[in-house]
Each structure stands twice: as structure tokens, then as C-alpha cells.
């Protein structure tokens, strides 16, 4: 982890200096700020006078990305002398919080940091832990995948505050405005807002009183009903003895069967669908409600009627204008549709838009912006969300969720005239999100891009609107329209094509990687970056060709994408959006609705150029062969983000090199070798004496496995590998797809049955050993690899919330082996090893897809803690990793997964990924940040791009 950088004061060279300075004004009382579920969060606090906008007091800031200049300390009397272009607005981004959404909060903070930092705006980062302790953290820590990645290091890496009061005093001196990105409790319930209000600190978003009223789902429902909106019938459960009789009566009133009536049970004060579940009958509802209370998610639980026959939607609302002219504008809403593939349990069809569906890129959810609703319904949604925003006193931005029910299935029997009821159907608003998620493909950015806002534009516009409320921040408003993104590429800009997608089981992660690379590279003024989707092959094969490279790859299709079509969760959704965008009727409707929103925005924004006006151009469809010729014609460099299939087996590399088109990553031979896990082991087998070991492998075809009795197969494999426990994996897939631990014949039978039935996933805990959901390749792989399962000692990251006195690591270290993943970067023959990451599995023995790529989950210890891996062993490990990389003729960059002996530094290689994951939470980012000096994401991806033009032919 990079150490903190104290850019506000050049004299602060270390954390110790900062702590010493802070200690001179520390107060002993740690309880001056008390947070609870009561209406008032603050006890015994008196408002403090607001300091000058250009205070010279020292402050703690993040390390800052290289393209941003350090904040200057300016005397107040010199303010008027400064040129407008030199003004720097100091923004404090506060993330974390006590709720289970703190991991998502980190992802949001990372997006904000990526897209607003610039010469005219400097970001300082702060973190609130689960116990409401506040810390100033480096921006490097914001790039952690999950709070557990660094919680245990906070005492040594971050600048802690003795109380929230001291934290607030620090903010008054160190930032001009706070941007809270805490989701859930303390972030959206008025907690952080009341703290800031009591210290007169400007902040983005809705005030504390309004937050409290809108955040609690039960209270908000009562408020909406009182104001004439349709609401979902609900009953409040608080864990009392009276709940059963009250709930039974409620079931009766709403004509629900007391034994099997279907309802939704949800915490009143939680977001991201955390704790939300479906229940059947009074007893089941009470059990699940009490589970939520017992688990500490919430003390109040709402039981609602399960809405059937409707379509879910979500809408972003922006506050535009200023003063009395300030008014909300609702962007184009998004329709949210759950999808079910293959045979599913009947109760899964009662599923909801849960945490996993929200944040993991699988095909379980589809999104449509604008929604496929009647035009009058879309108009009603926009009118209703705007009215709700105004009536509840919301500010700057919000996300409002709800349901549309066609008139044929209207579930509401009310005879009263309510807002949203018309001939086409009914609209009901269900959830108000006061700090909408800000991950790269979140609804905020999806909907904003549809009407011309880039990521930077929309975030800066929100911050600018918040600044309008504070007279001393007015000088910044004239200069904050300076945006990072250019409306037209420069003629001399270097062309870059970022390609992602494909049809392997890794295609969704590929989309995340490509999107992240594209967004980071487009911040460079000398680059003209185009995102490109490699569409699935026409026969929907998995890209698994046992005979080598794909001979028919040239006929594959590539789509050159406009900005708004990239921001999707799955490749299928991007492809559908492309087809939809060129369908005349749909394109015309989208254009019509888009123009109306833009008119509404311009009425509020007047003549100010607050958004780039991204073009509404259609996507361009080319064959892969023509796309490569086009890349050659425009002298583009191709950044390959296609995981698996033709993106990693040498096919795409061969086609590009044949036309002389430079590309990132290794060449044809290295790619082909590393794609085949058996070939990789053979290529490294001669390095055993140098401390590089390989795992014995046994390859069987699917046909062989399904035609031989289970008992015989199990005995045959375990005998050949001389082990009792197996690890099975597809021969040509990555990202933990289809990887499982098999402890007995019964486990093998379950796995082979999943192959035979072509299951998309194996449910959690289907085997003897505990495990998470296992995503399976589609179609089923033709070849499977069996290996001895390597036992490593469990590493536990404990936290204060688990009853420990401090966050710490627990590791018995009996086996002396740990699992690591490490990136390599450089030119062929001189590859450099980044600092390895020790991987910590949260559930089971195999890293799940979530733990690898879903933001807010998974733990990676980067660099390895000295308490686990000695410096000497780490040095030897890196030398051996470089030996492996050079032996395999890797170049550009790759990622190696291995087991490491913490004493000898010996490396037992698992596999090599020549197109590794490049998602916002990938360990490669952590490792690049651990370099000296740190490489921030945009620098890292630029380095990889530049290496492509320097490659050895």
C-alpha cells in the first residue's frame, strides 16, 4: 500500500509528522458525537465557525493521481490576485460506513476519484469504519477491493481521528466541500449530514432531516401515501411479541394466505437489497424478519406484498439551476428485468433484484434505457420522480426506484385517486436512494451518458450545483465548467481500440476489464480511445477449440461503440443495445425522449456548457477481419481485454500481427502455450531445481468421464495423481469458472451431473466441503484437468466488529504454503515482477467469481504481510516469477497464479493468464500501487499501452 501524501503542507513528509501536528489539537473526549437510531444523531455538539475557503491549516489528502497538481496553500488576501484557471477546489470524499454496503461505497469512491480529480479540483479521501471511527486514507487504499483488504492496516497506514468531532474539525480546515459516498446507515440516514451541518461544512447531497425521512422505507412509504402517491401495502415488524397478531391481521386485510401468502421481507434502513428476501406466510415472514434483526442488519423490518406482473424501473434525478430557480430533472429511466435461463427452481422465479444480481456481471438481469414502457408511462415516471424529489426536499441528485403495472394486471384496488394511475397502468415508487451507487456502469452513469454527460461531467455538475448553495464557494463555479473530457478528438491523437467481450465464460469479466481500461485511457488528451465489442460467434460456441486457434475467427463481428452503449453489465446486454440502437423505430423513440430530457436540462443549466454533449451516433458493425484492417488504416494500437477464447489462445494476436497492428500482452506462441494449462506445466518442468515447481495434471474428455462408472473414474484419477482430494477445472477457461474441490466419489458425481445437464452454475454447498456458487462454462467444456488439491492454511482477517481489540491477521502456518497471484510487466526477456498478493478465500477452498471480480468482496493482502512471508522469501519469489515469465516468453503484462512456500520462496505454479482481469478491483491495480513510485490505474494502463508499441518483433 502506498503511504499517505500530505499535499496541503509541504513540510509534512511522513505519517508521523502528520500525527504529531494533529496531536497538538487533539481532544480527550471520544464520545462527543454519538450515532444511534434515534432522531438526533448529535449530542452536545455546538456549531463551529466555517474557516476560510483557502485555509492554510494543514490537511491530509490522498496521494493523488499524477495528472492532478498538488493543492497549494494560499493566503486569503491573495485570492483575488489568482487567475481563475489556478483555483483548486478541495473535495473531501468520505466512504465506508457501518453498513454491509461499505464495500460498494469503496467502489463508488474509486469512481469519483477517477473521474473528478484534475488540475482545478483536488480530492482528499476519508474512510469511516464499521465502528464509526474516522480515518484519512491514501487514494491508493480506495482502490482496495474490499475494506477487509486494509482495515487491519488502518492503525499503521492511515491517519486516525480520536472522535468524529475531531474529524469534522479537520474537514473544516482541509477541504472546501465534502462529497459523502457512504451507502446505507450513516451515509443516507442523515448521520454524516448532521455532523457536517453542525460544523457548517458544505457537502454534496440532501440535508440530514430530509435524509432521515426519506431513507427509512416504512416512514417514506407513509410519507408518500400521505402525499397522494401509490404505495405498496406493508407491515412493520420490530421483534416484539405483538408482531405475530399484528402481522396475521395484516395478511388477512390484504387477502394473503396466512400459511403461504407470498411477501417481501426487507430491512427498513438498508440499501443494495441487503437482507431483502421472499417469504411465504406469517411464520416464515416472522422468522426471516427476526433473522434480519438478530444479524444486526436492522432493528425494524418491513413486510410488503410481493408485487407480481409488474416491471421494475429506476430513475436518476438531477437538481439543476440555483436558488429559487433550482428544480429537479429526471433522466431517462431504466427498466430492470430479471432473466432465468434453463431449468430453475420454481421459487427462483419469485426472485428479486438482490445484491448478487446488482453487482455481479451475470446474465440474471437485463436493463433497458429508456424502458420499454408506453410513452405516457415514461412521462408519468419522470413527472412523479420530480414531484417526489421536490416534496421531500431532496438536493443535488438521487435515485428513485419503482414499479410499472400494466392496466391488465393492476394489483391496486384503491378507489382513491392517486398519482400514477392512468389508462395505461399504474406507477408505484418504492425506494429512495439518497446517495446512488457510482460504480463505473451504475445507473447514474448509464442514464447520464444517454443525455450527453461523461462520467466526469455528471460528477462535476453535481459538485458544482452543491457549491451554488455556499457564497464563499462561488469563485469556483466559474471555473468548474472546465472538464477533463474533450468533445472532439485531436487530429494528432493516437488511436486506440480497446476490445472486449467474446463468447467464453469469462466474457462478462472481459466487459468489466475493457470498460475500466477505456475509461482510464480516455483521460489522456493525446489518445483517441474507441471501445469495441467482440460479439459472440454465430453458433454461440464457448470458443474452446481443442485443435488450437480458431480458423473461422475472421468472420466474427466487432461493434465500435458510442459512449453510452458501453455502460452495461453483460456483453449480451451491450449486443442487444447495439441492435436496438440501429432499429429505426426504437432509435427514433430514444432520440425523441433523449431530446426532451436535454431540453429540460438546458432550461435549468441556462447557457452554461456543463456537459460534453456526447454524440448520439449509432454503433458500427464490422467483421473482425475488416475491423483489423480498419485498425491498420488508422494506425491504431489494440488493447486486448478479451479473456479466454480467441483473445487468449493466440488467435487474435496472430491476426493482428499478420497485419502489423500493435497489441498489448504476449505474442502468439506465449499466448497459445499459457492457454493450455498442461502445455504451461511442460514448458516449466525443467525449472524444478531452481525452485519453480509444477502440479501434476491428468486430462480427461467429457465424453470419457460420462461413459465410465463414477467409482472407476475416481479410483483411476486419484491413483494416477496419488492423492485423496482433487481439484477439477476446464482445460481452457479461467476466472474460477468450473473450478471445484472434489473430496469423494459423490462430489465427482455431482460435478459430472452438472456437466451432463449443462448447468449454468452449481449451487453453493453442493459438495462435501463448504463452497460458494460455482459458475459453469457454457457450453460444457470438452476437456477437463484434474490435479491434486493443494492444502494451504486458512488466513483469517479479523476485525474489531468480531470482538477483537484490534483488526489483525490470524494464520497458523502449519503447511507453510499460501496462495498468491502476481502480475508481471515489461518487455520480452526482461519482465519485472510486481509485488505478489496473498489471496484469502472467504468461503470454501476455491476463490469464487465474486471474490475475484465483484466489487466489495474478496480479500487480497498486497504486499504479503511480513508476518506471513519473510522479506527474503518474497525476494526469491519475485526472482522465480520473473524466471517463469521470461521462460514462457511473456511480454507486455500477464498474471501468474501460484502457491508460495513462505520459508524457501519456492513457487508452485497454478496457471498463467496472458489477458488478466483489469477490473477496477483487480489485484493488478493493488500491485501497481505498491510499486515505488506508485502507478495509479490510468498510469498503469498507459504503461501497458506504451509497451505494445515497444514490443520486440
Automatic annotation (TrEMBL):
Alphabetical list of SUPFAM superfamilies matching this protein: Glutathione synthetase ATP-binding domain-like (SSF56059), PreATP-grasp domain (SSF52440)
Matching Gene3D superfamilies: 3.40.50.20, ATP-grasp fold, A domain, ATP-grasp fold, B domain
GO MF term list: ATP binding; D-alanine-D-alanine ligase activity; metal ion binding
Annotated GO CC locations: chloroplast
InterPro entries: ATP-grasp (IPR011761), ATP_grasp_subdomain_1 (IPR013815), D-Ala_lig_Van_CS (IPR000291), Dala_Dala_lig_C (IPR011095), Dala_Dala_lig_N (IPR011127), PreATP-grasp_dom_sf (IPR016185)
Domain ATP-grasp: 221-464, 684-949
Signal peptide: none
Record keywords, A-Z: ATP-binding, Cell shape, Cell wall biogenesis/degradation, Ligase, Nucleotide-binding, Peptidoglycan synthesis
Transmembrane segments: none
UniProt-listed GO biological process terms: cell wall organization; regulation of cell shape
Family according to the record: Belongs to the D-alanine--D-alanine ligase family.
Name of the protein in question: ATP-grasp domain-containing protein
Source organism: Erythroxylum novogranatense
UniProt lineage: Eukaryota, Viridiplantae, Streptophyta, Embryophyta, Tracheophyta
Amino acid at each position: 500500500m502506498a503511504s499517505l501524501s500530505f499535499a496541503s503542507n509541504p513540510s509534512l513528509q511522513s505519517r508521523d509528522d502528520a500525527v504529531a501536528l494533529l496531536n497538538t489539537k487533539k481532544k480527550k473526549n471520544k464520545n462527543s458525537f454519538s450515532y444511534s437510531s434515534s432522531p438526533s444523531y448529535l449530542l452536545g455538539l455546538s456549531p463551529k465557525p466555517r474557516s476560510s475557503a483557502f485555509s492554510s491549516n494543514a490537511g491530509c489528502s490522498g496521494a493523488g493521481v499524477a495528472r492532478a497538481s498538488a493543492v497549494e496553500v494560499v493566503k486569503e488576501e491573495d485570492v483575488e490576485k489568482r487567475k481563475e484557471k489556478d483555483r483548486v477546489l478541495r473535495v473531501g470524499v468520505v466512504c465506508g460506513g457501518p453498513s454491509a454496503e461499505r464495500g460498494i461505497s469503496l467502489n463508488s469512491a474509486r469512481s469519483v476519484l477517477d473521474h473528478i480529480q484534475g488540475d482545478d479540483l483536488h480530492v482528499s479521501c476519508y474512510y469511516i469504519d464499521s465502528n464509526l471511527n474516522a480515518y484519512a486514507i491514501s487514494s491508493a487504499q480506495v482502490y482496495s477491493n474490499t475494506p477487509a483488504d486494509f482495515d487491519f492496516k488502518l492503525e499503521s497506514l492511515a491517519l486516525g481521528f480520536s472522535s468524529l468531532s475531531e474529524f469534522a474539525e479537520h474537514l473544516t480546515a482541509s477541504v472546501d466541500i465534502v462529497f459523502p459516498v457512504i451507502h446505507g446507515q450513516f451515509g443516507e440516514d442523515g448521520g454524516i449530514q448532521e455532523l457536517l451541518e453542525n460544523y457548517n461544512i458544505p457537502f454534496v447531497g440532501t440535508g440530514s432531516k430530509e435524509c432521515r425521512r426519506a431513507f427509512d422505507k416504512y416512514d417514506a412509504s407513509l410519507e408518500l401515501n400521505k402525499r397522494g402517491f401509490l404505495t405498496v401495502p406493508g407491515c412493520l415488524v420490530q421483534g416484539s411479541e405483538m408482531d405475530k397478531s399484528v402481522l396475521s391481521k395484516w395478511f388477512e386485510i390484504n387477502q394473503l394466505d396466512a400459511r403461504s401468502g407470498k411477501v417481501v421481507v426487507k430491512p427498513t434502513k438498508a440499501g443494495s437489497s441487503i437482507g431483502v428476501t421472499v417469504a411465504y406466510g406469517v411464520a416464515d415472514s416472522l422468522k426471516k424478519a427476526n433473522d434480519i434483526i438478530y444479524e444486526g442488519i436492522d432493528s425494524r423490518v418491513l413486510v410488503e406484498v410481493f408485487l407480481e406482473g409488474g416491471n421494475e424501473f429506476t430513475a436518476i434525478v438531477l437538481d439543476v439551476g440555483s436558488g429559487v430557480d433550482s428544480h429537479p430533472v429526471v433522466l431517462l429511466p431504466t427498466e430492470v428485468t430479471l432473466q432465468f435461463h434453463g431449468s430453475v427452481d420454481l421459487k427462483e422465479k419469485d426472485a428479486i433484484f438482490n445484491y448478487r444480481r446488482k453487482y455481479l456481471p451475470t446474465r440474471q438481469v437485463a436493463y433497458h434505457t429508456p424502458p420499454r414502457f408506453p410513452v405516457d408511462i415514461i412521462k408519468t415516471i419522470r413527472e412523479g420522480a420530480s414531484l417526489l424529489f421536490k416534496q421531500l426536499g431532496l438536493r443535488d441528485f438521487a435515485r428513485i426506484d419503482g414499479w410499472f403495472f400494466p392496466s391488465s394486471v393492476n394489483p391496486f384496488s384503491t378507489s382513491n385517486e392517486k398519482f400514477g394511475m392512468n389508462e395505461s397502468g399504474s406507477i408505484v415508487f418504492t425506494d429512495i436512494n439518497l446517495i446512488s451507487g457510482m460504480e463505473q456502469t451504475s445507473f447514474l452513469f448509464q442514464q447520464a451518458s444517454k443525455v450527453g454527460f461523461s462520467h466526469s461531467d455528471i460528477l462535476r455538475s453535481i459538485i458544482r450545483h452543491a457549491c451554488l448553495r455556499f457564497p464563499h464557494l462561488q469563485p469556483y463555479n466559474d471555473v468548474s465548467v472546465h472538464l477533463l473530457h474533450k468533445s472532439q478528438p485531436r487530429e494528432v491523437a493516437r488511436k486506440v481500440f480497446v476490445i472486449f467481450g467474446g463468447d467464453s465464460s469469462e466474457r462478462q469479466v472481459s466487459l468489466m476489464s475493457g470498460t475500466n481500461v477505456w475509461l482510464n485511457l480516455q483521460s489522456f488528451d493525446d489518445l483517441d480511445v474507441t471501445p469495441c465489442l467482440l460479439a459472440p460467434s454465430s453458433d454461440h460456441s464457448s470458443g474452446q477449440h481443442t485443435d488450437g486457434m480458431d480458423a473461422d475467427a475472421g468472420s466474427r463481428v466487432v461493434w465500435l461503440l458510442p459512449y453510452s452503449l458501453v455502460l452495461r453489465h453483460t456483453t449480451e446486454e451491450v449486443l442487444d443495445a447495439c441492435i436496438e440502437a440501429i432499429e429505426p423505430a426504437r432509435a427514433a423513440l430514444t432520440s425523441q425522449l433523449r431530446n426532451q430530457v436535454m431540453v429540460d436540462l438546458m432550461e435549468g443549466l441556462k447557457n452554461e456548457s456543463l456537459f460534453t454533449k456526447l454524440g448520439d451516433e449509432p454503433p458500427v458493425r464490422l467483421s473482425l477481419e475488416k475491423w483489423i484492417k480498419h485498425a491498420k488504416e488508422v494506425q491504431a494500437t489494440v488493447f486486448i481485454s478479451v479473456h479466454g477464447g480467441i483473445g487468449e489462445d493466440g488467435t487474435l494476436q496472430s491476426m493482428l500481427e499478420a497485419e502489423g497492428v500493435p497489441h498489448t500482452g504476449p505474442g502468439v506462441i506465449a499466448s497459445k502455450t499459457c492457454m493450455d494449462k498442461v502445455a504451461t506445466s511442460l514448458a516449466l518442468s525443467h525449472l524444478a531445481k531452481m525452485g519453480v515447481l509444477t502440479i501434476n495434471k491428468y486430462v480427461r474428455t467429457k465424453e470419457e468421464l460420462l461413459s465410465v462408472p463414477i467409482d472407476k473414474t475416481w479410483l483411476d484419477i486419484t491413483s494416477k495423481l496419488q492423492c485423496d482430494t482433487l481439484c477439477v477445472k476446464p482445460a481452457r477457461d479461467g476466472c474460477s469458472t468450473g473450478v471445484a474441490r472434489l473430496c469423494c466419489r459423490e462430489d465427482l458425481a455431482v460435478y459430472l451431473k452438472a456437466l451432463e445437464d449443462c448447468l449454468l452454475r452449481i449451487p453453493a454447498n453442493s459438495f462435501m466441503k463448504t463452497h460458494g456458487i460455482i459458475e459453469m462454462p457454457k457450453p460444457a467444456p470438452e476437456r477437463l484437468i484434474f490435479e491434486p488439491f493443494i492444502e494451504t492454511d486458512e488466513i483469517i482477517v479479523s476485525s474489531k466488529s468480531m470482538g477483537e481489540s484490534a483488526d489483525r491477521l490470524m494464520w497458523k502456518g502449519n503447511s507453510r504454503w499460501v496462495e498468491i497471484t502476481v502480475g508481471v510487466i515489461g518487455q520480452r526477456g526482461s519482465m519485472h515482477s510486481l509485488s505478489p498478493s496473498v489471496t484469502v478465500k472467504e468461503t470454501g477452498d476455491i476463490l469464487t467469481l465474486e471474490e475475484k471480480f465483484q466489487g466489495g468482496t474478496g480479500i487480497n493482502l498486497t504486499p504479503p504481510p511480513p508476518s506471513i512471508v519473510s522479506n527474503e522469501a518474497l525476494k526469491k519469489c519475485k526472482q522465480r516469477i520473473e524466471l517463469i515469465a521470461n521462460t514462457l516468453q511473456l511480454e507486455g503484462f500477464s498474471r501468474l497464479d501460484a502457491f508460495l512456500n513462505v520459508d524457501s520462496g519456492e513457487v508452485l505454479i497454478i496457471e498463467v493468464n496472458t489477458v488478466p482481469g483489469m477490473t477496477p478491483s483487480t489485484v493488478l491495480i493493488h500491485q501497481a500501487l505498491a510499486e515505488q513510485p506508485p502507478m495509479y490505474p490510468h498510469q498503469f494502463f498507459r504503461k501497458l499501452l506504451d509497451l505494445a508499441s515497444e514490443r520486440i518483433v
